[in-house]
Amino acid sequence: MTATGAHAAAPDWRPLLSRADIAARVTRLGTRIEDDHPDGVVLVGVLKGALIFLADLARAITRVPVEVDFIAISRYAPDSGRVRILKDLEADVAGRDVVLVEDIVDTGLTLSYLIRQLESRAPRRVDVCALLDRPVRRIVPLDVRYRGEQIDDVFVLGYGLHHADLFRNLGDVVEADRRALRRDPAALVAALYARARGEREHDERDHEG
Predict the structure, then answer these.
(1) How far apart are alpha carbons 53 and 143 in whole angstroms?
(2) Among the four 22, 32, 45, 156, which has the fewest Cβ within 10 Å?
(3) What whole-number distance in Å separates Cα of residue 44 and Cα of residue 87?
(4) Handedness of CA 5, 11, 14, 16 (dihedral sign)
(5) Domain that holds residue 77
(6) 97-105/13-17 β-pairing
(7) What are φ and ψ of residue 170, in 5° steps?
(8) Are 166 and 185 in contact (CB under 8 A)?
């Protein structure tokens, strides 16, 4: 997983999904959601990670009405295993089709809690859409109806995924060395943002040419 060239001295990382890869998956997911929900859909993004993915997904759905809302919950408390809702929905989802949008599905604990919360509000149906699915770490059985990419047990950053609230705004997804980031959360800042600047400059030169 070691990057080459200018990034060789930085902690290990490697590209996982490029901007083009992500765009293709978002388009595919948007088409499937349109086909499955001809009367329209409420996209519920799980903050903060799903924000960027949800924005692109909403724009990819053009043939049916879309309403966007957000929900946020606390982390599982180690002593009790409980979570609490930090931001609740503003929309009434009773009798409506809801798609719960996540950046990544992991153990399934958080998502299963959110599904129960939504189902208690009497929607017509609740489906799950995730850009990334890491089923190897699943604890709670979960049906991810709309999945962008299944990944192994790797640590990922970018496109909403973060470490210490860094790297969310990267346009692609990279696999990173979790141990290095635990030692220094900013260890990959120089490498990954320099790479992003280089890619943008390359694209601008191609456009000018």
Answers:
(1) 19
(2) 32
(3) 12
(4) negative
(5) 5-208
(6) unpaired
(7) -65, 140
(8) yes
Q: Which residue is catalytic, options 56, 97, 103, 106?
A: 106
Q: Can 106 be counted among the known catalytic residues?
A: yes
What's the CA gap between 113 and 105, in Å, rounded? Answer: 13
Whole-prediction pTM value? 0.87
Q: Per residue in 129-178, pLDDT tens?
A: 999 999 999 999 999 999 999 999 999 999 999 999 999 999 999 999 98
Domains: count for the chain: 1
Q: Which residue matches tokens 């997804």? A: 173
- Residue 84: the pLDDT is 84
Residue 6: Cβ within 10 Å count: 12
